[in-house]
Amino acid sequence: MSTKDDRIEILQGTLDLLILRTLQPGPAHGHAIAKTIERSSEDVLQVEQGSLYPALHRLLKRGWIAAEDGTSENNRRAKFYRLTPKGRRQLGVETGRWDKLAGAIARILHSRERTS
Amino acid sequence: MIGRRPGLDDLDREIRDHLDAETEDNIARGMPADEARAAAIRKFGNAATIKEAVREVWVPGWIDRARQDARDAFRQVRRNPAFALTIAATLALGIGLTTAIYSVVNAVLLQPLSYPHPERVVWLTTRDGSGREGFNSLDFGTWQTGATSFEHMVAYGIADSTLASSGEAIRSRILSASTGFWELTGATPLLGALPPASARDVLVLSYRVYRDRFQADPNVIGRAVTINGRQATIGAVLPEGYAPQLPAFVWRPGVDRVEIDAYRGMATRAAPKSFGPETSVEVYLGIGRLKPDVSVQQAQAELTTVHGRNQQAYPEFLRGSVAIVAPLHEKLVGATRTALSLLLAAALCVLLITVANVANLLMSRSAARQKEIALRMAVGSGPLRVVRQLLVESLAYAVLGGIAGVFVASWLVNVVIGMLGPAVPRLAETTLDWHVLGFAFVTSVVTAILFGAAPAVALCRTNVQEVLKESGGSASASRRTLVAGRAMVALQLALTIVLVAGAGLMVKSMWRLTSHPAGFEPEQILTMRMDFAGPAYRDDRARHSLAEALLARARLLPGVRDAAITTDRSSTTLVMKEGEPMPKDRERHGAPISAVSPGFGPLLGMSLVRGRWLAEVEPQGAVLINEGLARREFPGVDPIGRRLRMPSAGADTFSPIVGVVADLKYAELDADTPPELFVHHAQSRLFGVTLLMRIDGDPVAAAPEIRKALTAVDPTQSIFGVRTMEQALAETIAPRRFNLLLLGTFAVVALVLAALGVYGVVAYAVAERAHEIGIRLALGAARGGVVAMIVRQGMISVVAGIAAGLLSALAASRLIASLLYGVEPTDVPTFAIVTLLLTAVAFMACAAPALKAAAVDPVSALRAE
User: In terms of Cα–Cα distance, which of B137, B329, B179, B162 is closest to B244?
Assistant: First the structure.
């Protein structure tokens, strides 16, 4: 587990992208999505778990994900979220945009300082 | 969007499941059960905030917040219903008066006329040097052939005729119109078919006459009637809403009933072959519709050219007249624009006074709410949120006030139409339509912002710490409230004095108009009119004997002290003096002439200046003239014994002047008495007479019996226009009474509101200082001194407001100059009285709370803290 200082708060838009990515392999319920994000980022990304829900509803409203009832691993009724075709396309777009942004920021940060 | 709202309902369950799952995970990692739960909750965050955030994804936040504010506002209203009621009632008054005037402005000035293509409908006339309007068949004929700007050009005349059907004769107002009238006014018949203009003997009934006189009988078409004894048939009935707006009569300006009872065709007569000063030509009124792409200016230019050619062809006859094309709407209501605009401005002044009053009320109470507000701000409500909430509260009051105001407006409009319906053209069309309701709504919202803003801002500047620390509220905040309150009071008084001064000037005008010379008692004189119609009265002798019979019968009726007949200035004549050449100029040498029975002058209470009255029999003929005519025709000469001939009045021989009477306003109150002549009725042709009866007791109560008795003299003739001379005179100044009634109402309301405003602010100041006053009294201050101190402080803003108001009123009074009569807009006595009145009222409003404060027991005042 990372120490508190190593954790990074995530921005709203970023959280949307992470949710879409998490749902790419298949449908998942809320708690599972939260856990997946934490685990895959090796606990660096700190999601206040509750903030997941407004984000899920934002995505529902945009039609990028859909919700359906299902049964969780411990046989409980739960709401499962899955990517819609529109969401899948959006994930592609967002991922591309993110790579570009990250690349650009990395280039700026790692470029050698110019001597004047 | 709202439809696709999955999961919002089972969000609670989802969150619970999430927390359970997390708790289980934590336990699996080895945490104790209770700690696992707490950690899960900590990791999840504030569930309430998150639920709120989810809701906000679907429901825009402002709707939620507005709902919350509205709930708070109505809670405030419910908590203090008396206070809310006071505010709503005050607002209802202000919004109601303003809405009422706006609804009149809307109906009269803003709504288009009920014609098809109303924007292209114009009024056609000629106007001569003395401002007389109308045109003759010669004009109309050349216009029709010469002018190309018009789609329709219609000449019409309106005459009161006796319409008889199955033995019953009624007085009816019949409009005769040339071709195109139905198309121009957009008429479609309810029954029958509209006749062509050439069918003079086919009558088209208005719906009102059809319903009231023919009992809405569907078989009325084809029924025979007589119009002034002439045979006619009913050809069509018009639908209920059909009422083309037409200008009042040329010869009876201002007030008259312009409702038409029936319509018929009219063939415009061919122009007479030759013209002379005695040629009589029919005078028409005209309306037209312009072609779609023609402007009023183009039509005017064209008609001026055509009319000019006409004048060159007949220079003697048409000299000095110009043709006029004007938008009909403007012709109908143009004269009322000044008065209505001023009344709307006055109503807005009342509204502002109302707003100031309500702002004051809210501010004095907001002082009491400081604690609540400070607390709200201390727990994190931003100042914006507090302002918003106070404004929503104001809006709640305004909406209540606005709804009540619409009822006030509807009531007021009904009262005004009932009292003075004909005083303003189109006034009867006033309704509370969507325009008016929209106006009331916008007015309510704007007033809410105005009266809500002041206390809201004052409260937001509240120093939270200071207020919460102190027990009685912040002294500096209440001082600010007091200063703002005093400014409001000054504003109210300034506006009030403007309104009261305007009303005062109008009252004085009215007093000038309606003060009669001693001896003239129009309230005791009953008048009624009969026009002699039908074949039986084609002969002049028959008409004279009917007139004599009516007079003789009237004299014998109980309650009638005296009776007289007059033709009531029915014609204008040239005045020819014996031994002098025939005057040419109708303007300078014409005068209205009335044929009267000898008792006419004494009955009215005219005073004889020289000579004698007319005698019962005047074998040589005799003329009475008034002082105006004596001055004009016989300057510096004694007119008695001079002989006159009046060619147009059927008096073809010279008759001596036997007497001169003082000018008397017995027909029109707001016009100067014209130079006029009276001749013995036996000397003149009579086409109808007005009977004047001096009544002992109440003329209105006696009228029905008298009318019945006189109808019995000849039941085929209808008696109409039954009213006292006072009523008839009042009608001539009905527009002025309309203005005075409304402005007077506004002034009284303003005065009461301003007095309440002064009282409220002084009472608030006294309440704030109850403690201090108690100390002063306890230390031995004289009660009189305390009262004087409070009144003095209150009167500072009063005097400032009155001074500012006087200056504004002096500047504004010039605007109402055209609505005054016989009074200068800066009339000093009026302004002095108004200032005294306002000062006195304000003084009393200051003194009442001061006396109350000084009367308290100092001990209890000190204990109250």
Answer: B329
